């Protein structure tokens, strides 16, 4: 799905107080080609204006509605280590329709402490928390060994959308949407491309200027 990429790019454009954007510019910011942008946005009923482009505010509204960001989605974070605290303190969630309503941890020494505006609560209270606050999305920010148990507890508490940041694979029953964010894999992908760039021979001056002569055919 490319709509989140367009949404992020449009937010950057809106922050610069730019009113319209071309499909080419949006494609550049989203890392796709302009033809895909025009095709994707046509499904939303947004075709832009020739020579002008797309209205940024209107397109943000259309994509927000398609992604469900016009709703107020209550979110619970399970695991209040460094990552969990960083997620709980991130203010960008609220602007995108996600409201952190609970931070939960299994460590009794952490329970009762505050993270931002929230008080850390016990994992044993998760069923009551999920029901009373209509938690729609659960975020797993625990160590790997605890992730599956937390996923099971979230499911048992009635949470049907889970985002897993733990560095392990967890399973969930059908009917539960489960997404995994593996920062290590993303870094490995970047290091792969970095290594390829570093090992590529530098272009000669002739190659850079496009004046190199092709070898003669044999």
- Poorly predicted spans: 207-218
Largest sheet: 7 strands, mixed
Helical proportion, percent range: 40-55%
Sum up the overall morphology in one term: globular
Q: Biggest sheet: strands side by side, in what order?
A: 5-6-4-3-7-8-9
Query: Strand-and-helix sequence, N→C?
Result: HEHHEHEHHEEEHEHEEHH
| Average pLDDT number | 86
User: So how many helices?
Assistant: 10
Structure class: alpha/beta
End-to-end distance = 48 Å
Strand composition percent = 15-25%
Kindly state the number of beta strands.
9
What Rg, in angstroms, do the CA atoms define? 23 Å
Give an overview of the whole structure:
This protein has 218 residues and is an alpha/beta fold. It is built from ten helices and nine strands. A seven-stranded mixed beta sheet has the order 5-6-4-3-7-8-9. Strand 7, helix 8 and strand 8 form a beta-alpha-beta unit. Helix 1 packs across helix 2, helix 1 runs antiparallel to helix 4 and helix 2 crosses helix 3. The C terminus is likely disordered.
Layout of secondary structure:
Layout: H1 3-15, E1 20-21, H2 23-30, H3 34-42, E2 54-55, H4 56-67, E3 73-78, H5 82-89, H6 92-95, E4 98-105, E5 114-115, E6 118-122, H7 126-132, E7 137-140, H8 144-156, E8 161-164, E9 177-180, H9 183-199, H10 205-209
Parallel strand pairs: 3-4, 3-7, 4-6, 7-8, 8-9
Antiparallel strand pairs: 1-2, 5-6
Helix pairs in contact: 1-2, 1-4, 2-3
